[in-house]
Amino acid sequence: MNDAGEFGFELRTCRWAERQWPLEATSDRAVIVARQLGTRDRRWDTIVLECDPDALRKRANFGSNRLDSDLLHVVRNAPADWAYYRDALPDPGYPWRYVRESIHRADDRGILETRKRANRIEIRRKWPYPDWLERVVAIENKPDLDASAARALGAQLEYDVAVALADEVWVATRPTGERVEPVLFEDLPIEAGVLALEPETLSASVEWYPRSLAVDEPGTRILERPAGGARDGSAARFEYVDPAEKRQTRLEIAERAYERGWRSFVETMRPDCRHFELRARTGGQAMPYCHAHGGCQTAAACSGSCPEFEPEPPTWRTHGWPIEGGPGTRLQQLLETRRRRNRPGAD
């Protein structure tokens, strides 16, 4: 196990994006980077959210946890003055009892005001929900793009371009040093950008600039492709995706990214193992490292089922070492602190 794996490359891509995005030097957009997010049909390796800085700071009023679709329905439509919730909110398309549950959840989180008048629930917003999301950029990470991986990636990128849920889609791969990067010869959609990223130094060059996708227009969701072959004359099955549905989905993904960030990898690992540590890399990044395996481990490998797992000795967790708990607790606190820094106004 080493940093050459796709997982390590993915973490390095996230750190590069956090430092270098947006690519235009004149842009003043704030950036949030997350990983392994998407929809039921499509999950992206890396997501870059370009945000309005002032609106992003106002988003912090609603806490660091995500707002799911039900909470968004409430806080985005809550009135400035007291009103009966059924009069104030648009018809959700599902039973109102679920709306009441969302109202109580929002009240418990302190992001909505509620009161009872004549046995009716009235609501009033605490803050307007800001329009903080401007653009969504999706990046697929393929450090070693062989022919079979390129075929699978081509189908995924065709899906992204057709649906146009993200404003841009990219492929990040390791540079080969050749005059023309081999990835440019692969059968990938011309709408997708290509980035050659050197993970050791966090240096990158744009080999192909992407086209902006029509996120405000209806998209096409590919449901089934022809099986292929000389005798296959069948057509692909698809459905249209309404722009309003796309806007809602983009915002839900952005909310999840706001909550998780990309440093959440430690939440699916075992930092309480005596072999686990974080090692500093170029760019001030802390990468997971396993002494038992001698390299950067993946979240799948670093689990309770790992045969090399050994819990921290009890003496490591006594006397508040170094602050509270053992080294694993301290590593979690460190990554959470760094994640929080990228949410302006969160503190």
Summarize it.
The protein is an alpha+beta fold.
CATH architecture of the largest domain: 3-Layer(aba) Sandwich
Number of domains: 3
Tally of DSSP helical segments: 8
CATH class of the largest domain: Alpha Beta
Under CATH, the topology of the largest domain can be stated as Trna Endonuclease, Chain: A, domain 1
Contiguous low-pLDDT stretches (5 residues minimum) are: none
Helix-strand pattern: HEEHHEHHEEEHEEEEEHEEH
Summarize the main sheet.
6 strands, mixed
How far the N terminus sits from the C terminus, by CA atoms, comes to 37 Å
Structural class by secondary-structure content: alpha+beta
Dominant shape = globular
Strand content: 15-25%
**Residue share in helix:** 25-40%
What's the average pLDDT?
Answer: 89
Q: Which radius of gyration do the C-alpha atoms yield?
A: 23 Å
InterPro entries: DUF5787
